[in-house]
Specification:
This protein has 227 residues and is α/β, with parallel strands linked by helices. The protein has 6 helices and 9 strands. The strands form 2 sheets. It has a 7-stranded mixed sheet with strand order 3-2-1-4-5-9-8, sandwiched between helices. Strands 6-7 form a two-stranded antiparallel ribbon. Bound molecules: S-adenosylmethionine. The site of S-adenosylmethionine has 20 residues, from helix 1 and helix 3.
């Protein structure tokens, strides 16, 4: 039997499937082993550090989404790659109607047990479908963990298809000029790569808002549907 820890015996397509499985296994194990903040937040921070990291980013997100909520016309928000649901729950508390999904069964089980309003599903960036378009599609610290460029592109394009006219797609990455792999589970893509995928689909890059957390170089790219 072939050694399951190598990909030497596999075709490129098979190897992609193995890489996907490894990513899923990595995140599911991390969600089982780490607490609710370190599992989806910054693994190098202690709990108070992660509390601040999440709070600062939630504040930044709310300035992007807007500070109004209307009980009779809530915003429809999708949190793609929601982890244990920290942002999904916070946005539901702010009066928005939230769908959220992640590939990790452990993360989704935790999120469902927490409750708080969002509707959760196990799904991936490429296969989530919705009967309605969203006002805001959010994808925090997920896309740069998708190592394969074709999977990244397919996931990003699927998210774009879910944004309503004048709605926004908010994705987290750096604001760099080059494709930069970091360690063995991160690839930051240049802003130009996001624009190349999204602008032909009718989404204009309207803003990059840095997280503003210590020296962290990442931030939120906002794309707005103009057609
Ligand atoms: C760094 S965590 C961020 C979680 C959450 N967005 C947060 O900020 O708390 C990355 C998450 O992306 C999920 N993920 C990775 N690849 C995915 C994919 N292709 N589709 C959906 N979720 C994915 C992982 O399971 C993990 O929960």
């Amino acid at each position: 039997m072939a050694d399951p820890t190598t990909t030497d015996h596999l075709t490129a397509r098979d190897a992609l499937g193995v890489a996907d499985d490894r990513t899923r296994l990595y995140w599911d194990a991390r969600h089982r082993q780490r607490d609710d903040l370190a599992s989806g937040g910054h693994i190098g921070l202690d709990r108070p550090g992660n509390e601040i990291f999440y709070a600062v980013r939630l504040g930044a997100l709310l300035t992007l989404i807007g500070d109004l909520s209307n009980p009779s016309a809530p915003l429809f928000v999708l949190d793609a790659g929601c982890g244990k649901g920290h942002f999904a729950r916070a946005l539901a508390r702010c009066g928005h109607r939230v769908d959220a999904f992640d590939t990790s069964p452990a993360a989704i089980a935790h999120a469902r047990a927490e409750g708080g309003g969002p509707r959760y599903a196990e799904a991936s960036l490429t296969d989530w479908r919705s009967p309605w378009p969203y006002d805001v599609v959010l994808c925090v610290d997920v896309l740069f963990h998708v190592l394969d460029d074709s999977q990244w592109s397919a996931g990003l394009r699927n998210l774009a298809s879910l944004v309503r006219a004048t709605g926004r797609l908010i994705v987290a990455d750096s604001d760099g000029r080059a494709r930069s792999p970091l360690g063995d589970y991160i690839v930051h893509r240049p802003t130009a790569a996001y624009r190349r995928e999204l602008e032909p689909l009718g989404l204009r890059h309207t803003l990059f808002k840095p997280y503003g957390f210590r020296e962290n170089p990442l931030g939120f790219h906002v794309f707005t549907r103009i057609r």
